Amino acid sequence: MSNPKQFDCGIASIGLKFPSLGLSVDELARVRGIDPDKFTIGLGCETIALCARGETVVDLGVDAARRALERWDGDLSDIGMIAVGTETAQDMSRPLSAFIAEQLGLDGAVRSYEVKHACYGGTLALRQGLEWKQSGAAGDKAALVIAADVALYGEQDGGEPTQGAGAVAFIIDKPLLASVDVRSFAWSKPAFDFWRPVGESYPRVEGKFSLDCYNDATQFCFEQLAETRGGIDAVIAEYEAFCFHVPFPKMVRKGVNRLGEAYAWSKEESSDFFDTYVDPTMDWNRMVGNCYTASLWIAVTNQLAAHKEGSRIAAFSYGSGYGAELLSLTVEAGAKHPAWLADVESDFAARKMISGEDYLELRSEGKPKLVTAPEPAVANL
Ligand code: HMG
Question: Does the CB atom of residue 207 touch ligand 1 within 6 A?
Fold first, then answer.
């Protein structure tokens, strides 16, 4: 079930970063002339995290990484890989990892790359970090894995109330805070449920279809896990929390409803499962909206801080396109002192809540600016 001795690696350090602005969905509803209950009750959203002018996905990734590095007992010279899961790519060739590594001062004998699979990209980067360590290829080096995104939809798009931004960084080394089971359960099916064509600033979405894809992936991943445990009841008995990718909280409720249908749960059983094991995992997600690759890992880091050593946490990752994976983590002793709580507390305390009018002004500046490259002659000095 969990890891054999030779695979003794996991999450050694965690850092999170959220941007400096926030917008309540009530405010968004007011300036859009929409009943706020649609956003709060219909979608389960509360607050959107937004970048201020000039604040970028690179800043979020760098700050999350610095926080993870500061509270780890190694330093930059111990990092042999940086992998960044994102769908906020700044360039078609240059990986986001290069933008971030540059600011961290990380270079040399380091494997550096970006991972793309919509919201699933952060999970893939994490798995690659773990598998790199587990294979022995890493030697005694550690991996720096970052999931970072600025999620913006076109103005007045149905996805607008679900926007968000944030980054989560992990050092993959000794399993001080959490170990991750070697075995996980993936499911993929090529689909156009949500995609962003090259050169376009905002995603295109087949909204209703995307809900079906998410629900199917939930069911098919959980069925694989349940098969290895002898049934869904054994799964529920094993885990203290079930974290999900959170495009918006009501989507996660729908995913649980699908599990209820698949396992013939009564309405009460479905609600009890959601209220006990799932809803508490989304406390931070409700404060920031959909952070794409970081969304699931915001929920997981919340739960690593909430449960005692030895507790088991399930993590369901979903990315449009679509690919999904259900992972299992175990809380390790170091999580008893969850230093990363300070990141969330300080970022939420420092952020400025803006009015609907401020938001409209921010959007009126047009599409988000990409991090620009210096002139080649300068870049190569
Ligand atoms: P919509 O079509 O504008 O909303 O956008 P709707 O009409 O379907 O209403 C939504 C809910 O609000 C409904 O509840 C309404 O009944 C309710 P439901 O029937 O679903 O239970 N409602 C109200 N409730 C109370 N008071 C009211 C009221 N009015 C309506 N007055 C949609 C909804 C999800 C399509 C839109 O937000 C969207 O396009 N979102 C983006 C796509 C998305 O998040 N999909 C989720 C699965 S795909 C995924 O997770 C991947 C993703 O993260 C990207 C990636 O992987 O990179 C998105």
Answer: yes
